[in-house]
């Protein structure tokens, strides 16, 4: 059956969005991440209020929980691809949509469509909370910088989710993917900060949402950071698509 | 006893457990080695302040192996087979064979405990050798009581992971929470700045068993993460209390709940 790719993509995208909408674990992950993020921001804000020395920066305090927030998006990405492999759903998926490259690309697109608003809401709510709580004591930041930083944070979280989805598609099993990614982001990366170059996805991505004025030691500008992080995500996604097309499901 | 042997055999036939054993044996040694490399310069320069922590930092931060062990021991039972082969769970078979849920739970917890004790001994062996290899003559003496504390910490962590997974019946949440919490940016690091109660969180209290020497007693209450707050024994008891409460809760829930996830 020949169907032009233009007419194919919309129903496939709809199907993938439907899957995300109905997966209970996706909903649970988003809700828990949101609540935890607010709780952690509250903790960071109260720490920031206790520190009397120096001026606080609303933006830094609001985004201080980013390190933890990314965990939610890593899990989201892994769930998006690995949920296909629990219970053989993948065979139904591929029977309905035998165009593998198109199908997985649509899945990634659908994932991005969910993570972009979710990431923005979470990052913005953190900053908003810090803004309300710190009030006048905090250093005022220009609205332009705020928007730029929030866009960077949203982009970083989305790229992280896509990267995790690609790794999940390569490994095809939830637990190893969770162990590998969380192990890298939370154990390996912080411990080897001094040894590894700054071109790894999480470190490059860090510059996406770090206001350049904070410290002069920034190795990468936000744009460079975005480029490097995007390169990592795209190459892993390419590897995932290639393997997905060639491998037995 | 046969249930216990069955649980051991189940665990050893899981590929994920071998991954856990590998991580458990290697991760603390690598972390300790990295830490020791960084510290060696300070020692040579004569400004070292963290000498008594050498090696133990690896054992404290490298617990991912036993976390995976504890989580997988339970979550593997709840993995649903593909719908084409009936969509069953191993748990149904296990509870058919060992119908007393309490016996089943005791056997499984016993198997997890035994494996994590053995694994922590292997980890201590690799960590101590890695530290010796790098620090050479500067290596501090490893005291038996602190190493025993590390074994307890690892076993309790495995049992915490076990209990949490029993409650969630899904490996992702406990894995995520515990792996993030075992990192240098753990929740207790953040929370101890907010409230002193954070010192009673299981991982922080567990650290007291081996991270600090009696000689390095700092002024209490300054609130730094790497300062002793409780005595090793109290720390151990606090962590044990967490484990006991969590396991009891998990046992009650497990006894009353339907098998299906």
Could you please describe the fold and organization of this structure?
The complex is a heterodimer of chains A (249) and B (261). Chain A is mainly alpha-helical and 249 residues long. Chain A has helices at 5-22, 24-50, 58-62, 66-82, 89-96, 100-134, 143-171, 174-191, 201-206, 222-246. In chain A, α7 packs parallel to α10. The mean pLDDT of chain A is 83. Chain B has 261 residues and is an all-alpha fold. Chain B has one domain (2-256). Chain B has eleven helices and no strands. The two termini of chain B are 27 Å apart. The interface between A and B is medium-sized, with 30 and 35 residues. Chain A: Keywords: Membrane, Transmembrane, Transmembrane helix. Chain A: The chain crosses the membrane at residues 25-47, 67-87, 108-134, 146-171, 178-196, 227-244.
Task: Write a brief structural summary.
The complex is a heterodimer of chains A (249) and B (261). With 249 residues, chain A is an all-alpha fold.
- The count of β-strands of chain B is 0
Count the DSSP helices of chain B: 11
What percent strand of chain B? under 5%
Q: Main β-sheet of chain A, in a few words?
A: none
Which stretches of chain A are low in confidence, meaning pLDDT under 50 for 5 or more residues running? none
The gyration radius over C-alpha positions of chain A equals: 19 Å
Beta-strand portion of chain A reads: under 5%
Oligomer: heterodimer
What pattern of helices and strands is seen along the backbone of chain B? HHHHHHHHHHH
Count of the separate structural domains of chain A: 1
| Count of the domains of chain B | 1
Biggest sheet descriptor of chain B: none
Q: What form of chain B results from the Cα inertia axes? A: elongated
Distance between the termini of chain A: 21 Å
Organism (chain B): Paenibacillus tritici
Protein name (chain B): ABC transporter permease
Transmembrane segments (chain B): 12-34, 54-74, 109-135, 147-167, 172-191, 233-254
Keywords (chain B): Membrane, Transmembrane, Transmembrane helix
């Amino acid at each position: 059956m020949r169907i032009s790719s233009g007419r194919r993509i919309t129903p496939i995208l709809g199907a993938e969005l439907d899957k995300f909408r109905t997966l209970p674990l996706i909903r649970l992950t988003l809700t828990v991440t949101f609540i935890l993020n607010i709780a952690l921001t509250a903790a960071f804000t109260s720490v920031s209020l206790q520190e009397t020395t120096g001026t606080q920066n609303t933006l830094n305090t609001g985004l201080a929980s980013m390190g933890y927030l990314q965990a939610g998006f890593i899990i989201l990405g892994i769930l998006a691809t690995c949920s296909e492999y629990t219970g053989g759903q993948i065979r139904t998926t591929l029977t309905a949509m035998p165009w593998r490259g198109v199908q997985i690309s649509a899945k990634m697109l659908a994932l991005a469509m969910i993570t972009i608003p979710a990431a923005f809401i979470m990052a913005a709510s953190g900053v908003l909370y810090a803004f309300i709580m710190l009030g006048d004591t905090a250093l005022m930041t220009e609205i332009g910088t705020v928007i730029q930083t929030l866009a960077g944070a949203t982009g970083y979280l989305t790229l992280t989710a896509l990267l995790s989805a690609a790794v999940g598609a390569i490994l095809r099993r939830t637990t190893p993917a969770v162990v590998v990614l969380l192990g890298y982001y939370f154990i390996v990366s912080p411990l080897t900060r001094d040894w590894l170059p700054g071109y790894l996805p999480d470190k490059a991505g860090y510059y996406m949402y770090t206001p350049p004025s904070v410290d002069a030691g920034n190795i990468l500008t936000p744009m460079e950071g975005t480029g490097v992080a995007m390169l990592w995500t795209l190459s892993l996604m390419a590897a995932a698509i290639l393997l997905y097309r060639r491998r037995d499901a | 006893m046969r249930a216990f042997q069955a649980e051991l055999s189940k665990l050893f036939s899981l590929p994920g457990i071998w991954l856990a054993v590998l991580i458990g044996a290697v991760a603390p040694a690598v972390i300790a080695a990295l830490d020791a490399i960084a510290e060696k310069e300070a020692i040579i320069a004569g400004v070292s302040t963290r000498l008594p922590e050498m090696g133990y930092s690896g054992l404290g931060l490298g617990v991912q192996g036993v976390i995976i062990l504890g989580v997988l021991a339970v979550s593997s039972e709840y993995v649903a087979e593909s719908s084409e082969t009936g969509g069953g769970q191993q748990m149904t078979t296990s509870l058919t064979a060992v119908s007393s849920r309490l016996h089943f739970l005791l056997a499984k917890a016993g198997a997890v405990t035994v494996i994590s004790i053995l694994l922590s001994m292997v980890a201590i062996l690799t960590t101590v050798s890695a530290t010796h290899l790098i620090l050479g003559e500067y290596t501090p003496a490893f005291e038996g009581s602190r190493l025993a504390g590390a074994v307890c910490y690892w076993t309790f962590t495995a049992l915490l992971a076990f209990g949490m997974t029993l409650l969630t019946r899904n490996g992702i949440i406990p894995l995520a929470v515990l792996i993030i919490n075992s990192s240098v940016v753990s929740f207790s690091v953040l929370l101890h700045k907010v409230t002193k109660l954070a010192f009673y969180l299981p991982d922080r209290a567990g650290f007291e068993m081996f991270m600090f020497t009696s000689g390095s007693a700092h002024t209490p209450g300054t609130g730094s993460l790497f300062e002793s707050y409780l005595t090793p024994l109290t720390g151990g008891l606090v962590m044990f209390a967490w484990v006991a409460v969590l396991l009891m809760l998990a046992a009650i829930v497990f006894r009353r709940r339907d098998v299906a996830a």
